[in-house]
Design brief:
The chain has 144 residues and is mainly α. Helix content is 67%, strand content 0%. It contains 6 helices and no strands. Helix 1 packs antiparallel against helix 2 and helix 4 packs parallel to helix 6. It is elongated. The two termini are 16 Å apart. The mean pLDDT is 94.
Length: 144
């Protein structure tokens, strides 16, 4: 494990996707647009459409992986809430939005109950607010 995870460094960058594949796809799309505009023919239009389709497939694959990860986080956190929180607070799990649960996963066990209560009371309304309120950061190093 490298450095301790905090709010400032918790964003997950996957270099192959974020810094190689996505930029190359954008360059390819720009090239397809330029070629189509400069020398219009149906082959270039087809190339442009394929470029757009490949970008959409790439984003779709990434979003599907993130959605599957979110489902796993919800399950893990539901089990954690049952172990760590009082029964009445744990029973209100379904009142939390998925984004709230995902942000709360970074909270240590000692402060989780207070933060969950603040979210349920409407005192913390965004993922950023929740993450900034966490004092005992619990890193998540196995993200997509």
């Amino acid at each position: 494990m490298a450095e301790k995870q905090t709010y400032a460094n918790h964003t997950r960058w996957y270099p192959l996707v974020h810094f190689v594949i996505f930029p190359l796809l954008i360059i390819n799309l720009i090239w397809a647009i330029v070629c189509t505009v400069m020398h219009f023919d149906w082959f270039r239009v087809q190339y442009l459409l394929m470029s757009v389709i490949v970008i959409l497939i790439s984003f779709s694959a990434r979003l599907q992986a993130l959605k599957a990860q979110d489902r796993g986080i919800r399950l893990e956190e539901r089990m954690r809430y049952r172990e760590v929180l009082p029964a009445e607070l744990s029973a209100r799990f379904n009142e939390l939005r998925t984004g709230d649960i995902i942000a709360l996963r970074f909270a240590g066990d000692g402060e989780l109950g207070d933060l969950v209560q603040q979210v349920l009371d409407g005192k913390l309304t965004t993922s950023k607010e929740i993450k900034l309120a966490i004092k005992d950061w619990r890193g998540d190093y196995l993200r997509v």
